[in-house]
Amino acid sequence: SSSYNDGVNTDRVTERDGARILKRVDLGPQHRPESQTRHYLPSDPANPYPPFVSLEIAQYAGSNEFYLFHITRDGENTDTWHASLQDAMDQADFEFGVKPGDWQDVSSNP
Length: 110
Known about the structure:
This protein is mainly β. It has one helix and eight strands. The chain has one helix at 85-96, and strands at 15-16, 19-26, 40-41, 44-48, 52-59, 66-72, 77-82, 104-105.
């Protein structure tokens, strides 16, 4: 199946940077095309990341915190820290207009 994110296939990925992915959404035409927040490349802080094509909410083993990963078409990513799953989902809504029903469950929350 073809998707808005230009062929990035993350459907089978269940971990990101050692954290277990709980939820994933591919950003599509129903979402804002650019984040309301600027995320800059660590290698070149003057330049922002290329457009993000998907988001993932993940959690590290033994942690009560959540991370909202922003993923580009070529797989580069950055993340934001959140105290709760709901806070991470609210951030995705603020940045891109992602609604609760847009998320796909990847792993169950412990």
